[in-house]
Amino acid sequence: MASRKIGIHRLYAQDPLQADEQLWGRKPQALSRRGFLRRSALVAMATVLGAPIVFAEHFPAGLIPAALAHSSEAFALPGKAPGLIVLNDRPINAETPPHLLDDPLTPADLFFVRNNGLPPQQSTIDPSTWTLTIDGEAARQSKTYTLTELKAQFRHHTYQLTLECGGNGRKEFNPPAKGNQWSMGAIGCAAWTGVRLADVLQDVGMTSKALYIGYYGKDQHLSGDTSKVVISRGVPIAKALDEHSLIAWAMNGAPLPWLNGYPLRLVFGGWPASTSGKWLQRISVRDQVHDGPKMGGQSYRVPCRPVAPGTKVKDEDMCIIESMPVKSLLTYPQSGAMIKEGRRLSIRGKAWAGELAAAAVDYSIDFGMTWKPCQLLPAANRLAWQSFSAKVDFPQKGYYEVWARARDSQGSSQPMLLPGWNPKGYLNNACHRIAIKVV
Amino acid sequence: MGSNGDIHSRFRRQLYITVTRLAAFIVLGSGMILLYIPFGEAFKASLERPELIESGGGMALEEDWDKIENGIHLRTGLIVAEGFELVKGTCTTCHSAKLVIQNRASRQGWKDMIRWMQQSQGLWELGESEERILDYLAKHYAPEAIGRRRALEIAEWYVLEEEE
Fold first, then answer.
1. Is there a contact between B54 and A42 (Cβ–Cβ < 8 Å)?
2. How many interface pairs between A and B have CB atoms less than 8 angstroms apart?
3. pLDDT tier at B10 (50, 70, 90 boundaries)?
4. Who among B77, B112, B158 is closest to A336 (CB)?
5. Measured between CB atoms, does B44 come within 8 Å of chain A?
6. What digits encode the pLDDT tens for the residues A253-287?
7. What residues of chain B, 104 to 143, have a C-beta less than 8 Å from chain A?
8. CA atoms in the 13 A half-sphere facing the CB of A74
C-alpha cells in the first residue's frame, strides 16, 4: 500500500499530467479513508488548494496539507514518512520533513517548493520554443538562445548543488517574522545538469562595468496583474562566473519538475535559493546591484549590524544575504523513535555550509555537555551537501535528544540556540535535534 | 508477488482510473455548462466563490463546504469569530488562508503586513474594514512567547527496530 504511493510520486516526476489524472482517482480514496470531511474528490482537491477546481489539475502528487501531514496514515511512506508539508497553497510553498531527506540526492518529488507567484501553466510551456535572452546595460549585445541552441552550443555539466531557502527555519524566530513559516525542510541537494552561466555570458560578451546579474522568469503575480514581475533576483558577477553556477534543464537526470522551474532555471549552490530563478526567460547583466522585486527593502536581507530581537531596521541598514551559513539535519531516524535499552542507534544526516564545505559534524545526547564526532563524507563536488553518520549508545532508559552540530571549513559552528534575530527571520542555522526514548 | 499479479492489479487500477476520470469529467463538464448558462460573465467570479457553484450548478458539492468544527472553518482553517467572514473575503482573494494561519504578529505587525501588501502587492484600501480585520488578526493570531528553543513536539512516538 505505502510503497505504491511512492510509486505515484515517482510517476508524477516522470509524467506530471498523467499522474495528476491518476491523483484524481486516488486522492479522494485516501482522504475518505480517514473520513476527511467526507467530501467528493473535487471538493477535497479544492479544499487542499484553497480555491475551487480551476487549479486542481496543477496540484502535484505528494503534497499534503499541513493539517494532515501527521495524521493521515493513507499518505504515509514506509517507516511512517509523510510527504511534503504544504505551508501555503497559493502560492505553493511546501517543505520536506527532515527524515525524507535521507537520500544521497533529494528525489525530484521530495524537493521543497518555494514559489512567490503562480508558475506558468503547464500547457503553455513548450521546451521546443522556449528561449533565454541575455541583455542588460553591461552586456555587449542582446542575444536570444532557444533551449535547443543552449544545449547544442555549450558544454554540458552536472553538479550536485545544495539549494536552501533563505527563510528556512523562520518558524523558530521570536518575535515571529512574517512570511512562510518554514520549519527545517526548505532544503535539498540534487544533481543539476545544464550549461555554465559563465560560458553563456562569455559568448554574449560583457563590458568591464558588469557588476551583477538579474533574472526574469515566466511566473505570474498572484494578483493576476501580468505587468507585475513576481520576483527578480540575482548574484554578483563573481558568483555568476563560478564554474558551478548553472543554467539547468535537468534534475537528477530528468527534466526539471514543473514547480521547480521547468523547463529552465538558474542554480547557484549554497546561496539563498531565491537567487536561482525558475522558468528562466531572461538574464540581465547589470552595471549596478540588481534592483528587481525582492532584491531591495527587507527581502532576503539581514541587518548589516546585529540588532536586539524585535528591532525595526531601516531598509538602508539591511544587507543582502550571500552565502548561506553552516547547517546540518538529522535525516535518520525520524524524531520520536523508541528503542530497546541496550540497543545501539544508527544516526544519519546531511551537512552543508553555503560557499564553504562542512569540516566536521558532532553529536550530543546530553544537551551539548559532551560531543562525539560523526563520520563525515566528502562532498561529491564543491557546494554539494555531505552525508554523516554515527552509532549512538545510551547509558540508561529515558528521554533523550540527539543534537547534531556541523562546523564549516573556516571554523564556524552551528549555534544551539537561535542565531541572531533579524526582522524577516532568515538564516536560522540552529542545531537540529531529534527525540529518542530508550525503553 | 508474481508479475502476473502485478499486471492484473495494474489493469484493475487503470480501469479504475479511467472510470474515475470519466466520471470526474462528466460531473465537472456538466457542472460547468450548468454554471455557465445562468451566470455568464459571473462565471469567473463563481470560481473564486464556491457558494455560487453550490446554488447554481447543482453539482453535488457538499452541504459542508462551509463546515465549522471546533470553531475552525474547515475549508480555510481560519478561526470562526467576529471578523472571520471579512478576513476570509478580503485576504483569500489573492492568497491562501494558510498564509494568515501560519503567521503570528501584534496588531502593529499585522498592520505593517497590510501596508506592505498595499504598497507592493496590489491590496486595495480597506477603509473601515481595516480596524475590524486588525481586531480579528491581533486577537486570534497574536505572537506566542516561544523563547529561543521550544520543547520538541512529537506527533507520535514509534517503535524503531534496528539491526545490530
1. no
2. 147
3. low
4. B158
5. no
6. 999 998 999 999 999 999 999 999 999 999 999 99
7. 104-106, 109, 112-113, 120-122, 143
8. 14
Residue B158, phi then psi, degrees to nearest 5: -135, 155
The neighbour count for residue A264, using CB atoms within 10 Å, is 25
Q: Taking residues B63-75, what's their average pLDDT? A: 87
| Distance, CA of A120 to CA of B100 (rounded, Å) | 25
Of A103, A96, A104, residue with least CA distance to A164: A96
Confirm if A325 and A352 have CB atoms less than 8 A apart.
no
Which residues, in sequence order, are bridge partners of residue A347? A390
The gap from C-alpha A200 to its chain's centroid, in whole angstroms, comes to 25
Q: Report the chain A residue with the minimal C-alpha distance to residue B9.
A: A4
Are the beta carbons of A343 and B164 separated by less than 8 Å?
yes
Task: Note the maximum CA span of chain A.
Answer: 70
Q: Do B47 and A416 touch (CB under 8 A)?
A: no
Of B100, B41, B49, whose CA–CA distance to B72 is shortest? Answer: B100
Residue B9 pLDDT exceeds 90 = no
In total, chain A counts a number of residues equal to 439
- Chain center to CA of A237: 23
Secondary structure of residue A118 in the 3-state scheme: strand
pTM of the predicted model, to two decimals? 0.75
Beta carbons of A233 and A310 less than 8 angstroms apart: no
**Three-state DSSP class for residue A328:** strand
CB B101 within 8 Å of CB B73: no
Q: Which three cell numbers, joined as nine digits, stand for B140?
A: 486570534
Cell of residue A11, nine digits: 510517476
**In A15-146, which residue ranges form alpha helices assigned H by DSSP?**
16-33, 41-49, 66-69
Query: Contact A384/A421 with Cβ under 8 angstroms?
Result: no
pLDDT of A421 strictly over 60: yes
Beta bridge partner(s), residue A404 = A363, A432
pLDDT at residue B64, as a whole number: 77
Residue given cell 481560519 in the structure block: B78
Taking the alpha carbons at both ends of chain A, their separation in whole angstroms is: 30
Nearest C-alpha neighbor of A97 from the set A73, A115, A71, A70: A70
pLDDT at A75 over 80: no
pLDDT in tens, A133-157: 999 999 999 999 999 999 999 999 9
Q: For residues A427 and A302, is the Cβ–Cβ distance under 8 A?
A: yes
Condensed to tens digits (0 to 9), the pLDDT of residues A18-37 reads 333 333 333 322 332 222 22
pLDDT of A70 higher than 50 = no
**A70 touches A76 (CB < 8 A):** no
Q: Give the three-class secondary structure for A154.
A: coil
φ, ψ for residue A203, nearest 5 deg: -65, -40
Answer yes or no: do A88 and B95 touch at CB < 8 A.
Answer: yes
Structure ipTM over 0.85, yes or no: no
CA A57 to CA A41: how far, in whole Å? Answer: 12
Is the dihedral angle over the CA atoms A113, A430, A269, A280 positive or is it negative? positive
